[in-house]
């Protein structure tokens, strides 16, 4: 296929595809999905070999968020039956992080629900970072605390944070349809604050909210312009009790095409499969490793993920290897350009590349979970969207173990 040959050539040279080329990837048929994966896989291997970086989430404060992100189980007015607790103490968070690190994670992502941290919250998180790094000197720590005020990114950096995550989630054009409590520009501002403070920026998206192909391309091109080291790709987890509970718009093939498009547009950035991979990729998760070079190990913020051992077995069976603590994540040209953590392995960050929260289980509001943005009104499905897959509500399991509980975590 001429399109794929062109995209591989551009990816190997770090040349930006045209918008039409990016849209064409999303428009390919299910019959061509293996060809798409094979092509994007060449670009992934060029910059990241067969390494898979493992990241581990610690939900420092769960639920009761004042933001109205439509996708999020922690949102204002959410009826989802999730764990709710206030700030973990530093030693509690450190113990939770230790489980993920023992499972092979090299980055710990510290996430807290809310619009953004107070100065007292920054102090709390700073104490938590110290507690973790006192026990695990070379671990990378990424914070995901929502919108940052002036000076807070610098304080987190001084406390030892390597990266900061804040997702754009969706395109600027549709952002107002899914959140009412903050703006797209607020999100961009926080990513820029993290960059300016010397933190490795992590920013990504949420797919599956009913957005169009054009919206997906818009947000990925916006991310390329912001140039984060790490791009988490979340797939909406349609939690019962949230406005987007009925948005089951993804198939495994659709997810693979989205990941491939992100890889072609951002060939040398860390692409992480974040929230929703077990729900939407299902048995096709191993194919996604040919596109993304990073995943979360174990559970997410408010939902349970695949068993940690199953993650490790999947990586090995697919012919990949877990990235070691001493390995540098990002390609040399990004490191030499000052790309933060991905950069210098000995700096502790190993790779500033990911940033955490990508997370909020899914991206979200500065934090939140499933996916996409904050807001109350759901996005109307695009006319070009594929026929939704059957709802697999059985795959959405609320987290009942790990941080905030007396049960051992999944790692």
From TrEMBL:
It is an enzyme of class 2 (transferase). Residues 47-277 form the Radical SAM core domain. [4Fe-4S] cluster binds at residues 65, 69, 72. It comes from the Bacteria. [2Fe-2S] cluster binds at residues 109, 142, 202, 272. Its EC number is 2.8.1.6. Keywords: 2Fe-2S, 4Fe-4S, Biotin biosynthesis, Iron, Iron-sulfur, Metal-binding, S-adenosyl-L-methionine, Transferase. One of its GO terms (molecular function) is iron ion binding. Its cofactor is [4Fe-4S] cluster; [2Fe-2S] cluster. GO terms for biological process: biotin biosynthetic process. Residues 382-411 are annotated as: Disordered. It catalyses: (4R,5S)-dethiobiotin + (sulfur carrier)-SH + 2 reduced [2Fe-2S]-[ferredoxin] + 2 S-adenosyl-L-methionine = (sulfur carrier)-H + biotin + 2 5'-deoxyadenosine + 2 L-methionine + 2 oxidized [2Fe-2S]-[ferredoxin]. Binds 1 [4Fe-4S] cluster. The cluster is coordinated with 3 cysteines and an exchangeable S-adenosyl-L-methionine. Binds 1 [2Fe-2S] cluster. The cluster is coordinated with 3 cysteines and 1 arginine. The keyword Transcription regulation does not apply. Pathway: Cofactor biosynthesis; biotin biosynthesis; biotin from 7,8-diaminononanoate: step 2/2. Belongs to the radical SAM superfamily. Biotin synthase family. Catalyzes the conversion of dethiobiotin (DTB) to biotin by the insertion of a sulfur atom into dethiobiotin via a radical-based mechanism. Homodimer. This is Biotin synthase.
